[in-house]
Amino acid sequence: MPFFLDRKASPNRVREAEDARRNRQEIVKALSQGRVSRRDLIKWGVFTAGGMLAWKHGLNPFVGSAYAEIPTGLPASPLFGVLPFTTPMPRFDVLARNPLASLTPAPTAQANQAQRDVPAVLGGGTGPIEGRPPGPIWAHQGFDVFPPKVAVQATQEGATTNGVYNPMVPSSLNSGIDPTQPIPLRFHPGLPTQSPLAVWTFNGTIPPKLVMGRYGEPILFRHHNRLPEDESQNGGFGRHTISTHEHNGHHGAENDGFTGAYFYPGQFYDYHWPIVLAGFRTINPDATDRRAGSPDGSGGIVKVAGNWRETMSTHWFHDHMFSFTSQNVYKGNAAMFNIYSALDRGNEAIDDGVNLRLPSGTANDWGNLDYDVNLMLADKAWDANGQLAFDIFDFDGFIGDRMTVNLIYKPYFEVERRKYRFRILNASVSRFFKLALSDGSPMIQIANDGNLLPSPVVLTELDEQGIAERYDIVIDFSRYPVNTRVHFVNLAEHEDGKRVAKDLSLAEALSGTSSDPCVGRFLEFRVVRDPAKPDVSRVPDVLIPNPDLSAVPVARHRTFEFGRGATQTTNDPVSAFFGPWGIRTDSGANTLAADFGRVSAAPRAGTREIWTLVNGGGGWDHPIHIHFEEGQVLARDGLASNVPPWERGRKDVYRLRPGGSITITLQFRDWGGMFMEHCHNTVHEDNAMLLRWEIDDGGAPFLRPLPTPIPTPQGVTFRDADDVLPTAL
Amino acid sequence: MTSNRFCNRCAAVLLAVLAGMASLASSADVVSTMVPFVTILKGSTETVSFTGTARLDTQVILDNVLGNAPVMEIVVDMSGVTGVGTSTGSTYSISGPAILHRPLSANDLIRVTFPFYRGSDLFGAETVEATFNCKFDTATGAVTAVKLTTLKM
């Protein structure tokens, strides 16, 4: 059953589908603006208690059409005559790194409670300029030990033209794009410019943003919320309150983007990213190991404390607003964060016995992007006017019908005849990808999620890549003659947002017969020349071995089952949310819907646990993200031998596979506070497959359990946790 | 296939039948089928003779909640196959596995590509396409018959 109508669908059917979509958009709009609740819609019979859109003609797209006994589907996103591979893919836009003194007001350990006038539409009165919860519990942990050295600022705002694009590479390495030319926010030069209400990105612009950081150099990321003050000014979807999650930062919870620590238009939130190696309190605490290090700016290494085997590389950051993550991320709240280290320093020439010399470049001591390319893959859809559109069929997921890379519809990218590293992020709402090159040539996977693998893995077809997973791969274009064109191909066919319907063969995907418009070629590599300088990059046989946890006793085993039919046992109007999805913890009586006021697990600081994540059904897949700590996969479906080579490093997103389970081990160290675990199919997350866990015994001033923040424009208040599961502590 | 594919239709080979070769895997729901793999591929530097056993792990996954059609999870593992370069005597490996989700069907053509490479020369890897023409017992997911062909890409 195709999600989107075929382009050959009759005009009557398309018109009918447009009507249906318009009806559903009214529902999405009312929900996003808080004018109705999900309970209201269930009461009115619009949604079923199981979370499906009622089978009413004009609402559910799978209801039989008036013109034939077939589903109405969705009208295809119009292309306005645009053809694939006719515009270049822009490299990410690197956010400026400034001195801390550039921040006004200066950052503070506890949230800045200086008052401002709150607009009437937000309730009037006064409220704090910073949206971070106040007081010692939400103060930056380690602010004195790891004081920020670099300031990065960004706004969140409606679409506008970019006049300050900084790709950090010359135009010749950016497919000829002239960075001095203004860049309107549109998915292709032939497509309409997005309105400020349709798209909300960092700084309101494209290309997507990239933060570059390095170990030993803490960053203060100040995020300004400049979204419309009026909640209803959202173009039909998206919520103007945001919480920015640095996925999978090893930071204190106050900097994690907790789902209930959101902030309002007109406020900022200071996120302190200390960028430390995990285990810094107990492993290599005196910083004597050169492998635990950071580029010093002049070819050397600054040694830092911690375990070098915990070095991380490719992160991203995105909104985590409770119940609105899918809409806000889809609307543009997604960026990437490259972390550089002595091992992965972004310089392929420095030969110091530590640097892995992965493809990158040579001009700078660290962070060369010449041959190190961030790719953000996301499926989108737009309405008849070309404006970004979001639709809820049901709560199983949302998939778009247009592939974008770095927010450009099916672009091309010029490459030289040499090795490139691609940091591939799946930034979709519900879509999984499975990538191959159109000629079947091998690629070398070097990292999974934020972490370099113990050993590289050569593959011709990557594994399915779930939402939020990052796959770093190396492609050697020296195998191709100049003027070759080769494509990235998506093999994973979807029919809906629940899971991959069919992994196609390369031939099937290239045949053009799939009903899924996002199957097939989506990015064209154009081999344009030989490199000006010899390619001295390498992919060593050994990258980053896993931390050896054998000496760390296992304190607890926990089980989390991800399924449907959730019940809600709490009813806090702010922290609890009703939805069909939920999580059953430790064989509890119920599969529970989300409540960020409920504590489902509270591991002791300094311990290691084993968690088994179980898919409660065979009709869907879930990419489960556990915040803060990376895990090692011990088994799939109970067997270590089922763990494929590319999952044998550290990870932070775990695809369960339909009917499957995965067993991981992870430690709880260094920082405390409240974190989350959830499905990163963000429609599932928002409807209500999310739980809170916390580390609350890390030392004063922590409480057990922690009070729950309840943000308002006038300030954040706290409530006691409204539920603590019996097995949590 | 595309025009820029390095289509070297050399060595399509084999084979084979398999009644009686399916055996239950360690998980009750997963059925493992061993498929003899014997082929000769003309690589860019030398011809390579591969022998060994490909393993197909198949599992029918039911949707007991929403009642959607079952899906078949198929894991194609080539770790039991090794190659020898006919000129140099070097050892070649095939990387993998491939993990696929496909609608449950009594007949399915499972076409997967794998890299093969000499020693640890990952950048010298080339591609072989393996096509498993399978018949399945749709109740158990067991492969009841399979024919394997290979193609150097």
Brief overview, please?
The complex is a heterodimer of chains A (729) and B (153). With 729 residues, chain A is mostly beta strands.
Notes on the structure:
The complex is a heterodimer of chains A (729) and B (153). In chain A, strands 17-16-15-19-23-21-22 form a seven-stranded mixed sheet, with no helix packed on it. In chain A, strands 29-28-31-36-33-34 form a six-stranded mixed sheet, with no helix packed on it. Helix content of chain A is 6%, strand content 29%. Chain A has five helices and 41 strands. By secondary structure, chain A is mainly β. The termini of chain B are close together. The radius of gyration of chain B is 16 Å and the shape is elongated. With 153 residues, chain B is mainly beta. Chain B has one domain (12-152). In chain B, strands 1, 2, 3, 4, 5, 6, 7, 8, 9 and 10 form a ten-stranded antiparallel sheet that branches. Chains A and B meet through β22, β26 and α4 of A and β7, β8 and β9 of B.
Largest sheet features of chain A: 7 strands, mixed
Shape category of chain B: elongated
Structural class of chain A: mainly beta
* Helix vs. strand class of chain B: mainly beta
Number of strands of chain B: 10
How many domain regions of chain B?
A: 1
Low-confidence runs of at least 5 consecutive residues of chain B: 1-28
Biggest interface, which chains?
A-B, 50 and 45 residues
Global outline of chain A: globular
Task: Describe this protein with a few key phrases.
heterodimer, A: 729 residues, seven-stranded mixed beta sheet, 5 helices, 6% helix, B: 153 residues, mainly beta, ten-stranded antiparallel beta sheet, 0% helix, elongated
Layout: helices, strands, pairs:
The complex is a heterodimer of chains A (729) and B (153).
Chain A (H helix, E strand, L loop, with lengths): L10 H22 L5 H7 L48 E2 L3 E2 L15 E3 L8 E3 L21 E9 L41 E3 L6 E6 L4 E7 L18 E4 L20 E6 L19 E3 L5 E3 L10 E6 L5 H6 L3 E7 L31 E9 L21 E4 L2 E2 L2 E5 L2 E8 L8 E3 L5 E6 L2 E9 L10 E7 L8 E6 L1 E3 L5 E4 L2 H5 L9 E10 L24 E11 L16 E5 L12 E4 L6 E8 L7 E4 L4 E6 L13 E2 L1 E3 L5 E7 L5 E7 L2 H5 L3 E6 L12 E3 L6 E3 L3 E2 L5
Parallel strand pairs in A: 1-7, 5-8, 7-14, 15-19, 18-27, 28-31, 30-38, 30-41
Antiparallel strand pairs in A: 2-5, 3-4, 5-6, 8-10, 9-13, 11-12, 13-14, 15-16, 16-17, 19-23, 20-24, 21-22, 21-23, 24-27, 25-26, 28-29, 31-36, 32-35, 32-37, 33-34, 33-36, 37-38, 39-40
Chain B lengths: L21 E3 L6 E12 L4 E15 L9 E7 L3 E5 L5 E4 L3 E6 L3 E12 L7 E11 L6 E10 L1
Antiparallel strand pairs in B: 1-2, 2-3, 3-4, 3-5, 4-7, 5-6, 6-8, 8-9, 9-10
